[in-house]
Design goal:
129 residues; alpha/beta; five-stranded parallel sheet; elongated
Length: 129
């Protein structure tokens, strides 16, 4: 019977594996959209640390005022700049690198992490150059 339906079973198995993998990438990591980020940044936020994990040249082309630039490529070497006792809000260009950074920080013992969905591509607020 399996031989008869292998052409259906294999693609379904691949799809299940793919979606399971995608879901596991942000397990335990909160997400917010750019509108929520704008609201948060307009409030007093002594217990929140904002990180932009884009490369320096991307950051210099335009960034949100108040974000610290720690590129994903150097994140492992600069974790001493990121406090463990605050909420860490992470942004990148599209939201992919911020999830990667959040996963890397989770592995290093950070707990209160938030990735910005859509990243700078969805940001409609002011940008500093």
């Amino acid at each position: 019977m399996i031989k008869k339906y292998w052409h259906i079973i294999i693609p379904i198995t691949i799809l299940i594996g793919f979606f399971g993998y995608k879901l596991s990438l942000n397990a335990g990591i909160d997400e917010m959209n750019t509108e929520q980020l704008a609201n948060l940044m307009n409030e007093p936020h002594e217990d929140v640390f904002f990180v932009d994990v884009r490369e320096s040249h991307e950051f210099n082309e335009g960034h949100i005022d108040g974000m610290m630039n720690i590129p994903l490529s150097t994140l492992g070497d600069q974790t001493e700049l990121i406090p463990k006792d605050q909420t860490i809000v992470i942004i990148c260009r599209s939201g992919n690198r911020s999830l990667q950074a959040a996963n890397a920080l989770t592995d290093l013992g950070y707990q209160d992490l938030v990735s910005v969905k859509g990243g700078m591509l969805k940001w409609e607020g002011e940008v500093t150059k």
